[in-house]
Amino acid sequence: MDSFELKNEKELEKEFEKEFSSEIAKLELIETDKKDFFTLFSENKTFIYSVLFYAAGLLCGSFIYKNCQNDILNNILSAANGDFLQLFLNNLSLYMLIFAASVLLGVCLVGFPIINIIPFLIGFEAGMKVTYYYINFNVKGIGYSLLMVAPFVCLFLTVILYSVSMSYDLSRKIYSITVKKTDMSEEFNYRTYLKKYLAYAGLIIVVTVINTAVCTALNGLISI
After folding, report:
1. pTM recorded for the entire structure
2. Which of 69, 128, 176, 213 might form a disulfide with 182, Cβ 3.0–4.6 angstroms?
């Protein structure tokens, strides 16, 4: 009897240890998932914040146009007409102005707290445009926005988000070096940032050419 009871006790202990180990493994897995989530968020928080600010800009632009629409706004937001060169220069000047703002905020000591104003303004302008086409042209306006506005806003926004992310990082490093007196000479290289900025500027030119070429080609086919 004693040996039988001892065996039962040992079996119960083994089962308890197995259950306890499985519960610990589950808790460790949950903790790992939480860490992975927070790590993923921290690594991409600049993009996440930029997308949120862009979405807020869309809503604000839509709300402002809906409540403040007038002839002046309609003339500003209406589809631009002209030859390829004129449209190209107009688009390029606007895109480069926004890109230059992101670069200036990147080399600014306190640029990182306010740099998300750039995706907000892009969203604001896009929201006003889409709402303008919808209110004035109904379903046809939505179709026009999907074909002529949304694709190029997405292309340009993608480039700008990378530029904003890099500018945020650059501004933070300048702030750390200047204000906090942090020694970051080993990981801080102006040439790397300059090369990336030049690459983004080149991508913006490519996006502008595509935008202008498609709009010029489709203006004769799609009228609104």
Report:
1. 0.76
2. 176
Question: Tens digits of per-residue pLDDT, 44-87?
Answer: 778 888 889 999 999 999 999 989 888 888 887 876 666 788 88
Q: What local confidence, expressed as pLDDT, does residue 40 receive? A: 65
pLDDT of amino acid 16: 46
Asked if residue 123 lies in contact with residue 54, where contact means CB atoms within 8 angstroms, the answer is yes
| 191 conformational bin, left if phi > 0, alpha if psi -120 to 50, beta if neither | alpha
Contacts of 197 (CB under 8 A, 6+ apart): 103, 106, 163, 166
DSSP 12: H
- Strand, helix or coil at 116? coil
